[in-house]
C-alpha cells in the first residue's frame, strides 16, 4: 500500500505549484526475520536477521549488521531437544552468512530430519521468545521423470526448457517447492518456486520448470527461465507443508511484483509467532540431466 500511496503523492506534488506538501513516512520498528529449514536427512539450519526499513539505503555493512548473534535456538522432534550453535559461513561471492545449526562437537546428541516427523523451533533473542512448528511430509508429489525441449524461438536456438513429470496421488492438499542447480552453481529457487495440486489432483502431469535465479542480482525476466544447451542441470524437488507453501507463495508474488504500482499489496504469511519469515520442513528428491549442445 505504501508504494501506491507514494506514487500518488508524487503525482500530486508535481501537479501543484500552489502549496508545499510534506510527507511524513513513519519509521517502522525492526522485527526478527527467521529463515529456518530442516530437510530430510540433514540437520536443521536457521538464519536470523532484523528487518530493514523499506526506504532505508541498503549496503553491505547494513546487511552484515542485520544478523542476530547470541540467540538461543532450539529444535525439538517431540522426544529430543537440541540447542543449535552459531556458525559463520559464506553465502557465495564473498558475502558473509551467519547461521545456527547442530553443534559439530556434539553430533551424537543431534538429529537429522525424518519424513513424517514434526519439529518445533524455539528462539530467544533480545529477551523475546518466538516459536514455530513444521512437519517434513511424505513424498506425495512424486518426481517421476525429467527431460528438456528446445526453445521455440529461432533467436533462442542455444536455449532449452526443462520439463518434469509429476505423479500426484488422489488425496488433495499436496505442496512442493523446487530449486535448480546449473553446472557448478549453487541451488537457486525459481521466481515462482512453489506448486500445489489444486488443478492436477490425482493425475500424472508434465510441468515446465524455470531456471532458478539469484535474487541478490539483477534479473533478466525474459531470459531467466531458460537453460543453455550443454548445461548439466540438477533439480531439487521438495514436498512441503501448507504453511511453508503459503510463505513462499506470497513472498514469490511480492518479489515478482516489486516496483509495479498497479499490483495488489501482498501480506507475507509467516508461520513464526511474533516474527517475520518461516520454519519449514522439506522432503527432498533429486534428478540430474545433461542438456546436449
TrEMBL record:
InterPro entries: DUF4249. Pfam families: DUF4249. PROSITE patterns: PROKAR_LIPOPROTEIN. This is DUF4249 domain-containing protein.
Amino acid at each position: 500500500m505504501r508504494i501506491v500511496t507514494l506514487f500518488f503523492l508524487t503525482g500530486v506534488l508535481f501537479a501543484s505549484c500552489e502549496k508545499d506538501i510534506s510527507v511524513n513516512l513513519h519509521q517502522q520498528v525492526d522485527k526478527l526475520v527467521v529463515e529456518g529449514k530442516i530437510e530430510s536427512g540433514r540437520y536443521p539450519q536457521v538464519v536470523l536477521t532484523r528487518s530493514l526499513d523499506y526506504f532505508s539505503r541498503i549496503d553491505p555493512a547494513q546487511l552484515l549488521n542485520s544478523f542476530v548473534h547470541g540467540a538461543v535456538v532450539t529444535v525439538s522432534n517431540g522426544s529430543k531437544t537440541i540447542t543449535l550453535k552459531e556458525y559463520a559461513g559464506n553465502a557465495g561471492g564473498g558475502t558473509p552468512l551467519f547461521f545456527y545449526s547442530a553443534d559439530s562437537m556434539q553430533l551424537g546428541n543431534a538429529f537429522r530430519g525424518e519424513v513424517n516427523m514434526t519439529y518445533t523451533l524455539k528462539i530467544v533473542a533480545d529477551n523475546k521468545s518466538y516459536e514455530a512448528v513444521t512437519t517434513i511430509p511424505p513424498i506425495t508429489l512424486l518426481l517421476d521423470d525429467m527431460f528438456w525441449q528446445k526453445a521455440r524461438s529461432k533467436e533462442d536456438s542455444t536455449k532449452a526448457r526443462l520439463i518434469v513429470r509429476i505423479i500426484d496421488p488422489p488425496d488433495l492438499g499436496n505442496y512442493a517447492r523446487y530449486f535448480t542447480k546449473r553446472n557448478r552453481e549453487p541451488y537457486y529457487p525459481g521466481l515462482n518456486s512453489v506448486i500445489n495440486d489444486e488443478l492436477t489432483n490425482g493425475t500424472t502431469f508434465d510441468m515446465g520448470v524455470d531456471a532458478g535465479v539469484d535474487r541478490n542480482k539483477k534479473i533478466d525476466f525474459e531470459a531467466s527461465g531458460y537453460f543453455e544447451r550443454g548445461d548439466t542441470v540438477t533439480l531439487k524437488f521438495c514436498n512441503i507443508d501448507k504453511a511453508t507453501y503459503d510463505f513462499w507463495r506470497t513472498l514469490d508474488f511480492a518479489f515478482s511484483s516489486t516496483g509495479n504500482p498497479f499490483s495488489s499489496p501482498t501480506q507475507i504469511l509467516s508461520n513464526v509467532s511474533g516474527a517475520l519469515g518461516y520454519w519449514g520442513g522439506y522432503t527432498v528428491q533429486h534428478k540430474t540431466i545433461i542438456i546436449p549442445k
